[in-house]
């Protein structure tokens, strides 16, 4: 008899971004490997609910047909505002609606609940669900909370932060197993545990069919940035990169979404940076296609210490597409890029150094090609989902 698992997550196909893609891959690969997995999620709404009215985002027919296994709860308060109270009510509504669904699912015989955090409020509903469903619980950590909340400087209430830190410890200690997507999280979580508990590193990555084996030739040298333009991504330095690339006459493509997208677009217009092309949020397939057709990819993270533990999904996507990386990052992400020779890393403030290295690569096709080959080798060795899912299967079986 196969094991049954309920995945609980805010973001799931067709939601764009690394979290939705991660949970989609976990769901598909568990089912392909003899584990009966279902999903409890919200209706797609990030970053904009209306965009999912476009059929282009619903591009996997097999998932569209599995409505009996993918339970989507409607959320009335779906505005992704930065105001702390608005977000609090949003997460509380998700928690409430998930609890209602868990009560309906109590006779389904789930052996495990796998819950993805952040947000932490979904984890609270999963802890209650653990007893309602009589299941074990796997906590899947995609971001360190509340440190990431503090890192983006949106919340500084010390008494409430103290409560959040207490809840964080309880969250780790109550889980039966913990899965992390960045090795940088390991020490942070380990010191908060009272007893020895398995912490399994299962990074984001591509599926085998997504890997670029042959990179197409490009007539024009192109630089690309994809992903969130939010509070963690250091948009101010990205603006400066756009300015300097324009001065060099280098095309810069940006697929961006998030709370600072409008600010970035307005900056380009005000400064007449017409070599910078901003694309609307699109499917993962089209995003990978744009990266594949670019010569260099850039990434930035906020300089706060918490972000030194993060390995952004976009960096793995860049390697998947055989595209060299120039990044203003430190810690885990910088170590991965440097040790595997998939690109070059700089201090976030060294914008001139970043652009100078891009110009160097424009004139050095041999190095550009070698960095791309190193990226593919690294992805195949460490980041393929078909290999890494075995770690989660071992926990469940």
Automatic annotation (TrEMBL):
The keyword Thylakoid does not apply. One of its GO terms (molecular function) is hexosyltransferase activity. Keywords: Membrane, Transmembrane, Transmembrane helix. The chain crosses the membrane at residues 112-133. Residues 215-376 form the Glycosyl transferase family domain. InterPro entries: Glyco_trans_1, Glycosyltransferase_grp1. This is Glycosyltransferase WbuB. It comes from Oceanobacillus indicireducens.
